[in-house]
Amino acid sequence: MSTIVRFVQGSPEWHEHRRTHRNASETPVVLGLSPWQTPHQLWQQKLGLVEQEITPAMLHGTQLEPAARAAYEARTGLVMQPLVLVDGEYSASLDGFTLAGERLVELKCPVKGRDSTLWKSIAERRLPEHYQAQVQHQLMVSKADVADVFVFDGTEGVIFPVAPDPSIWPRIHEAWDSFMHFVATKTPPQLSKGEVRERDDPEWIASAAAYVEAKRAADTVAKTLDAAKTKLISLASHTSESGGGVSVTRYWKAGAVEYRKIPELTGLDLEQYRSTAREEVRVLIDR
Question: Which of the ends of the chain has fewer CB neighbours closer than 10 A, N or C?
């Protein structure tokens, strides 16, 4: 059963709500369908590692939203109330919802208006897959009978009705379950191909070649050092032996504490005691 939550859009409470819930506008991201954001970028936002960037296109849509809603109401004769609905962990910020709850509207105000890809798609009676995912999430949470996608150019708009498709909803649940596991464990999801910047400038190529050469030399030295160490240990039979400027000493080291075996910690959320995440850099040689 969905419930209405009262937030002022853009308020700290609204941002915290979005950070902790599975939001309709983010569903295309976790499904890997978003043209604008990757799962890794969303993961960083959910953990508060980065702030969401407000793009000119987003600002344009926010500014035109009241006019778009008024144009939709004038065209349909419906009264639409913007609100946030929650069903468990799932949330949907609706641009408009009828009082009876049978219909919702998702307003889209592309910067290029009629020249936008979205407007042309709707004119051809097609809704891009990433918007389909967002709207199905809204229908799943709201239990509405239909969702109207209203694309507005600042003066006029076109309507594309979308019916609920419950066959898609399990896929949405599975994608979110997988994504939220990364958030809960603070483990980053795999980078998308588009997030890897390919470099072929001379300075990078020269530095990469120098690193590869140095790493291979270091690996060779490490193998030689490990072999010599193993030989010395095999020759030592006493607690401590010394000669040729090298000492071999045997000692006992305390074992690590196995926290999972402590009864008092059973069921305790240890994540609250984890220190702040920090950025680390890893350099790998592509095989």
Answer: C
Sorted by where each starts, the structural domains of the chain and their CATH numbers stand as 3-185 (3.90.320.10), 201-273 (no CATH)
> For residue 206, what is the DSSP state?
H
pLDDT tens profile 50-93: 887 778 888 888 899 999 999 999 999 999 999 999 999 999 99
C-alpha distance across the termini of the chain, in Å: 52
Q: Are strands 103-108 and 146-152 parallel, antiparallel or unpaired?
A: parallel
Q: At what angle do helices 39-46 and 169-185 cross, to 10 degrees?
A: 60
DSSP 160: E
Torsion of CA 109, 94, 135, 119, to 10 degrees: -10
Single out the residue of 5, 138, 26 nearest to residue 83, CA to CA.
Answer: 5
Q: What is the pLDDT of residues 21-39, one digit of tens each?
A: 999 999 999 999 999 999 9
Q: Are 72 and 96 in contact (CB under 8 A)?
A: yes
Sorting pLDDT into bands at 50, 70 and 90, what band is 9?
A: low
Is residue 107 left, alpha or beta, with left meaning phi > 0 and alpha meaning psi from -120 to 50?
Answer: beta
Q: What mean pLDDT is predicted for residues 229-247?
A: 93
**What predicted TM-score, i.e. pTM, was given to this entire model?**
0.73
Q: Tell me, what amino acid is at 181?
A: H
Helix 169-185 × helix 129-142 angle, to 10°: 90
In sequence order, the β-bridge partners of residue 105 are: 96, 148
